[in-house]
């Protein structure tokens, strides 16, 4: 079956209009309209019009000849006017062929900054990669050479005029800023993908009686259904009280502060930095903050990114459960986005066979209460390549979000998905320097689009947090000189909100901060144990692990061993394989809900002590032990008790022990450190 090109263009225009109404968030619509300098109603028509031109480059001899049988049905006049055919990708051909007709519609003929050039760039990028072209060449008659003669050019102009008429004839904008072009390109790509599904266009009437007007009106009526079937329609949650949603007796002081104090500080988009010890409920704090930020900024939904696939898998269940509890009809889906998401039993679905329909919405009924998150499973369409971030609620690895600001295909589509939601970065401290640079670039884009951001961390250095806030504000339009002399360092524990429009910083109140410190107070003792560790098979290290585990293995209790390398983990596993013990690398230190009575770790940075504390205090918090790794000098000078959790180190290991003491001193009501500085450490919790 040959589907008429004109009908596909009209389908895409109709779906783009539907996406404007049902998919875009308020902040995206406002930002696009403001960037174009037109009212939102006109902006909607313009976006639909441009989507309806995306495949104009297919109306060229080079493309039509790709199907010889269909090309023979083309009129003799067009075939005779093909001329010297040049094979050009149809996305690039759309960019070349649309420029002239757009100029005639009043888009301006400035090839550098004119609106026609901006729209041509959108059309050229609708296959995921923006085209490069000499602006002067774009404005010349040579740009359509090889794309058909005068007959082809007249037909293309007729198509442009017809699509323009069907969408209401929106007036041309004076400019199309590059940032607006990026967002609209993502929307055009999405409209094209939805209109290109077989199940969609095979059911269309393509008989001679189907006029352009009748077809477009039918496409407008069905656009909403297509968007809903794909799982893209935005819906409001039925918000539950905090305690009921998270099934806790009451929010802790940090969470209550966000509920009570944050709304007064938020007047629009901004960035929220939450720094608190592991186990202090930062995830629930972020979900509560999303309520406040989304309402003020006009976003809908949340994207939660984490450093590893393991942490993303666990977070998926938590976010999906929260969404399912507030979406009784199961209308909202939560996607999991990383390369191995299909292996996650919580996310996978055997019912989605390879031959199933592209557009589907799974009806999951009678789900047991113990698996509430299953009601938030997405249908097949959102599980497709590069689509997961388009869902209203998404959880995934950090790298998936970074692809939106890297020069890769369909980065504009990913950015479209991110900018309509509240963006949450968990473990904001856990990224390498080059990743932090990319994060700053992403934050700048989100700041420009008025997208609220939440950064969560237990050990984020105050200077690093300050840099991330400044990157966000630069995207929101602030110059470096305007921010000079301002400080955006968050107190620990606590939160800091910075408004995108005013750059005004609002911290958590000292009273609430003191309440949280008192609420989470715990005694923490740190000891060190020198061992020989040169090879993974070192008997001294393995024997020390076994000795530490003996009290729990012989009785009852759970334990985990954190190793520095994969080789160490393998050797430790072989040594302990007859015991019920979790052996892992440092991956379990990042955002995983672990509840163990004993935790043993190789030598690690001081911040790992803080992470270990959270692991042991998250639930029961009975005991923590972190021991091991290499020979040290005579353990003199660190015996006895230290004040307020600070070590009094000496010797060659003093530097590491002092750094550890400084970090631990920021935790509430800490105990003592003893043993040689710089070695592995034992962390224990004692009842107050």
From TrEMBL:
Q: Listed GO molecular functions? A: endonuclease activity
Q: Where is this region: Disordered?
A: 634-688
Q: Which UniProt keywords apply?
A: Antiviral defense, ATP-binding, Endonuclease, Helicase, Hydrolase, Metal-binding, Nuclease, Nucleotide-binding
* Coiled-coil ranges (or none): none
InterPro entries from the UniProt entry: Cas3-like_dom, CRISPR-assoc_Cas3_HD, CRISPR-assoc_Cas3_HD_sf, P-loop_NTPase
Name all HD Cas3-type domain ranges: 1-194
What PROSITE patterns would the database entry show?
A: HD_CAS3
Superkingdom of source: Bacteria
What are the Low complexity biased-composition ranges? 643-664
The record's CDD domains line, in alphabetical order, gives: Cas3''_I, DEXHc_cas3
Which family does the UniProt entry place this protein in? In the N-terminal section; belongs to the CRISPR-associated nuclease Cas3-HD family.
Record-given protein name: CRISPR-associated endonuclease Cas3
């Amino acid at each position: 079956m040959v589907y008429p090109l004109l009908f596909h263009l009209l389908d895409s225009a109709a779906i783009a209009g539907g996406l404007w109404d049902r998919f875009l968030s308020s902040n995206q619509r406002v930002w696009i309209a403001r960037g174009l300098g037109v009212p939102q109603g006109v902006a909607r028509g313009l976006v639909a019009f441009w989507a309806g031109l995306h495949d104009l480059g297919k109306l060229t001899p080079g493309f039509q000849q790709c199907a010889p049988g269909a090309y023979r049905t083309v009129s003799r006049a067009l075939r005779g006017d093909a001329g010297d055919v040049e094979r050009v990708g149809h996305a690039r051909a759309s960019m070349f062929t649309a420029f002239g007709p757009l100029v005639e519609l009043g888009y301006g003929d400035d090839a550098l900054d004119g609106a026609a050039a901006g729209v041509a760039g959108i059309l050229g990028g609708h296959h995921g990669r923006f085209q490069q072209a000499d602006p002067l060449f774009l404005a010349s008659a040579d740009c359509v050479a090889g794309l058909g003669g005068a007959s082809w050019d007249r037909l293309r102009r007729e198509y442009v005029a017809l699509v323009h008429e069907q969408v209401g004839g929106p007036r041309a904008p004076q400019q199309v800023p590059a940032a607006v072009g990026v967002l609209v390109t993502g929307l055009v790509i999405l409209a094209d993908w939805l209109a290109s599904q077989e199940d969609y266009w095979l059911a269309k009437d393509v008989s001679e009686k189907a006029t352009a007007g009748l077809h477009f009106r039918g496409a407008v009526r069905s656009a909403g259904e297509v968007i809903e079937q794909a799982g893209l329609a935005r819906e409001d949650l039925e918000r539950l009280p905090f305690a009921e949603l998270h099934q806790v007796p009451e929010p802790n002081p940090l969470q209550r502060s966000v509920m009570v104090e944050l709304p007064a500080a938020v007047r629009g988009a901004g960035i929220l930095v939450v720094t608190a010890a592991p186990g202090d409920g930062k995830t629930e704090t972020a979900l509560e903050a999303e309520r406040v930020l989304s309402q003020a900024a006009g976003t809908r939904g949340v994207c939660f990114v984490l450093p590893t696939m393991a942490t993303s898998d666990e977070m998926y269940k938590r976010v999906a459960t929260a969404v399912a509890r507030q979406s009784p009809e199961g209308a909202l889906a939560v996607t999991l986005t990383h390369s191995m998401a299909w292996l996650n039993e919580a996310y996978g679905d055997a019912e989605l066979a390879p031959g199933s329909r592209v557009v589907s919405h799974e009806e999951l009924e009678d789900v047991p209460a113990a698996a509430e998150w299953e009601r938030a499973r997405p249908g097949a369409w959102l599980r497709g390549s590069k689509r997961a971030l388009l869902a209203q609620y998404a959880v995934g690895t950090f790298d998936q979000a970074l692809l939106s600001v890297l020069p890769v295909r369909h980065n504009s589509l990913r950015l479209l998905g991110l900018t309509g939601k509240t963006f949450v970065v968990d473990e904001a401290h856990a990224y390498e320097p080059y990743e932090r640079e990319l994060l700053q670039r992403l934050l700048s884009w989100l700041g420009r689009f008025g997208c609220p951001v939440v950064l969560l961390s237990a050990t984020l250095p105050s200077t690093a947090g300050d840099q991330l806030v400044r990157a966000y504000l630069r995207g929101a339009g602030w110059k470096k000189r305007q921010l000079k002399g301002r400080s955006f360092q968050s107190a620990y524990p606590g939160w800091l909100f910075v408004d995108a429009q005013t750059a005004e910083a609002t911290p958590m109140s000292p009273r609430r901060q003191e309440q949280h410190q008192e609420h989470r107070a715990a005694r923490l003792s740190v000891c060190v144990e020198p061992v020989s560790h040169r090879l993974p098979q070192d008997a001294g290290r393995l024997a020390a692990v076994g000795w530490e585990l003996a009290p729990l293995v012989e009785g009852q209790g759970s334990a985990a061993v954190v190793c520095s390398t994969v080789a160490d983990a393998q050797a430790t596993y072989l040594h302990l394989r007859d015991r019920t013990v979790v052996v892992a690398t440092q991956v379990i230190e990042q955002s995983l809900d672990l509840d163990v009575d004993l935790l043993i770790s190789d030598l690690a940075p001081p911040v790992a002590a803080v992470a270990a504390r959270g692991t042991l205090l998250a639930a029961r918090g009975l005991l923590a032990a972190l021991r091991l790794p290499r020979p040290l000098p005579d353990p003199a000078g660190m015996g006895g008790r230290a004040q307020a959790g600070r070590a009094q180190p000496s010797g060659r290991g003093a530097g590491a022990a002092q750094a550890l003491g400084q970090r631990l001193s920021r935790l509430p009501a800490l105990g003592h450190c003893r043993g040689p500085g710089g070695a592995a450490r034992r962390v224990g919790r004692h009842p107050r």
